[in-house]
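sanity check this:
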Amino acid sequence: MYLNSCIYFFYHMIQKTSNDHFQKKSWEKDISLSNLLTLHNTMGNYLYPDYNIEFKDDILDLWFGKGFDLSRDVIRFEDDNGKFVGYVAMSNLSGLFKSHFLFYAILPEYFDTRLPQQVIEAGISLGKSQNIQGLEIETTGTLSAPFDRALEKFGFHPFHYALELHLVDLNPSFLPQLPQGLTYQKSLEPVNLEQYVEVYNAAFRGSFDFQEWTLENSQSLIDSQKKHFDFAIGQVFADGILIGSCNLAYEPGKQFGYISGLAVIPKFQHQKIGSYMLLKAIEHFTEKESKKIILTADVENEKAVGLYTKAGFRIIESLKTKTYMVT
């Protein structure tokens, strides 16, 4: 019995040791970025098996955009057999946010090895080598714990949290009305892109990691969502001028509905316009027979969280997103 235990112990140690040697390499130009995307989707399916939406190749243009350099901005990891097992990359999401972000992914079978720590360390070094100030990295969900532990080992702690909320049961008393004189319209594109951008900027200016949207990056984001989802925009007008909007993205394969960018210009806030757009979004996805209706909110945005929970959404604690500042 003792001999068997020793054999098992040494076999286990040999196996773990063999899985703990990973070679860090720069991304070679002849390697397709589709490999990066495949790994990202694989990890997403592991972390969020019930709701992960797999990205397609076109998302890479949004992630990395112009000026991206493979050999400079991406580090890949291989095991002893030369198998691609992980990566970390740096991007500013085509200017959508004021900070740079670290994207990363590893194969799920390596979560219990040193690879998460090596990926985090390489990402931090990547930012420092380019003198990036304000480099952020996110972890989402309880299964991301190996990355959280690695970040804490290097002395980093979350400075921001984002909540995911799912509609559990629509509150039957949640029946907001649109103020008199205002009109609601749903369309596949913004009726007026310039006004759409102005509404978003006015509503979210001063919020976490906010960067002024431009016509170009707004259109890029819309085009990307249209490729991935059945996409529409709910819009509220006052005398023909856009004063509120809400993005509606439906994923037909998994029958999920995503609500995002719910915005009302400050002058018209506190008139239940946001509540009305939220109700119309729920109705939109209910008509499509969505299995889940999902949205996210900053934990500090108490008014928004209050609105969503009043409507019947519930916070999914196991899917909380943590943001760390690493340079």
